[in-house]
Design brief:
Radius of gyration: 14 Å
Distance between the termini: 23 Å
CATH architecture: 3-Layer(aba) Sandwich
Order of helices and strands: EHEHHEHEHE
CATH superfamily: HUPs
Low-confidence stretches: 46-52, 116-122
Number of domains: 1
Strand order of the largest sheet: 3-2-1-4-5
Helix content: 40-55%
Structural class: alpha/beta
Strand content: 15-25%
Length: 141
């Protein structure tokens, strides 16, 4: 049923919980050759912040990979097929665009991410993804 599952991850606790659920689903459908695609989207503000904190591009790249390390370890331990992608753009629309272009069957995303300014009811990224996605979206709290 779900051959391609996208996990939207930013390293937050909710995104790690979302990854755990996505990996559980992937294991159920493992015989069908399910692939989990872990996507981290770097927006303009994050990019500027990273440059101000790190003077070398290698340090920035490693820091971004570190945000995905916990999810990668969970997928590896569960023995599910996965890939990691770091994309640039506005997170909500970039996730939806990637899902559309890559025939994603399910998007799994945490209720809230690392942006504490927009955590009133639901994270702004998860809200945008729900509104614009053309495939099912699972929100994990």
């Amino acid at each position: 049923m779900f051959k391609k599952i996208l996990i939207a991850s930013d390293g937050s606790a909710d995104s790690i919980k979302a990854a755990e659920k996505a990996i559980e689903l992937a294991k159920v459908h493992q015989e069908e050759g399910t692939l989990v695609e872990v996507v981290y989207v770097v927006d303009g503000n994050t990019s500027k912040y990273d440059v101000l904190r790190n003077w070398d591009s290698l340090g920035i790249k490693e820091e971004r990979k570190e945000k995905l390390r916990a999810v990668e370890q969970k997928a590896f331990k569960a023995r599910v097929d996965y890939s990691l992608k770091i994309l640039r753009g506005e997170p909500g629309s970039t996730i939806v665009k990637y899902a559309d272009e890559n025939n994603i069957d399910l998007i799994v995303i945490g209720n809230r991410g690392l942006n504490t300014l927009q955590e009133m009811v639901m994270g702004s990224v998860s809200h945008k993804v729900i509104q614009k996605a053309h495939c099912p979206v699972l929100i994990v709290k």
